[in-house]
């Protein structure tokens, strides 16, 4: 069968090699083995017609039937077989369109993006290999694993990258800040304890920001939500550690505004730790009970960025600068 694009016949039914998945995806999707509601006998008519054609040819060759009659019969049978096949495919395409209108065009759409299309073919090949292992225990566990992968693919399709490891998300975070598409970085830090940026990854993040801001590759604005521990209710100013840290931010020309956590008592939805990377993406950090990062999300979609901008505006209305605090104590 020479070329990779050839259609193989196995058991009388059309199948497609995994390597041909992109080119013949529509044909494979229309195969009666994959189509619910289409009766298998409808595919038998062209096969019967071919068999009768062969019988008539044999009869004509051996003189049992006149050649003119055989020719007429063969012509009509070929027309009938062609017509029935066309009707079957048209019906199948209509049925498929009802289920998933874009399914037939999907490989052609993906082929415009080389890396994505390559992954599409890889997944198709592996799914085809899985299909050939009928063991029920294996298939039950495979389906469970595939459901987990489905959830992750859905997140990726929504433009969301999820990181469970601190170091892995900081790599993506640095890539964003150093990219040519992010000129303004807005950060909201919900500080519950004094060691927020004291660990090694935190110090690396600060040094990266200072480097980019000092070299004018990036502009940055900060809002910091301070817990009772860091800005006690009976104190005019935050703790000395926070004041020193704010002065350090000012030294690097990073505007920093403060909010008492208690002032957001009626706006609990604003008690989140997030960053806005221009109009390109937003990131949100989730902490465990010990204030360690347990999950970080980067969302590359307009709605998430717009929602974060609204959160920023609401937080800004609560915030004050250190100068305002010193001039007009709360």
Describe the protein.
The chain has about 325 residues and is of the alpha+beta class. Helices cover about 50% and strands about 15% of the residues. The protein is built from eleven helices and nine strands. It has a seven-stranded mixed sheet, with helices on both faces. A hairpin with a 2-residue loop joins strand 1 (about 10) and strand 2 (about 15). Mean pLDDT is about 75; it is low at about 1-45.
Question: Secondary-structure blueprint of this entry?
Answer:
Blueprint: E1 8-10, E2 13-15, H1 21-30, H2 44-61, H3 67-99, H4 106-110, H5 114-131, H6 136-157, E3 160-163, H7 166-178, E4 184-191, H8 200-214, E5 219-226, H9 240-251, E6 256-260, E7 273-277, E8 281-287, E9 293-299, H10 302-318, H11 322-327
Parallel strand pairs: 4-5, 5-6
Antiparallel strand pairs: 1-2, 3-9, 4-7, 7-8, 8-9
How many β-strand stretches? 9
Q: Please list the strands of the largest sheet in the order they lie side by side.
A: 3-9-8-7-4-5-6
Average pLDDT = 77
Percent in strands: 15-25%
Distance between the termini: 84 Å
Shape: elongated
Backbone CA Rg? 33 Å
Uncertain stretches of 5 or more adjacent residues: 1-43
Reported for the largest beta sheet, the result is:
7 strands, mixed
Topology order in helix (H) and strand (E) letters: EEHHHHHHEHEHEHEEEEHH
Helical content band = 40-55%
Structural class: alpha+beta
Number of helices: 11
Name its key features.
single chain; 330 residues; alpha+beta; seven-stranded mixed β-sheet; two-stranded antiparallel sheet; 51% helix; disordered N terminus
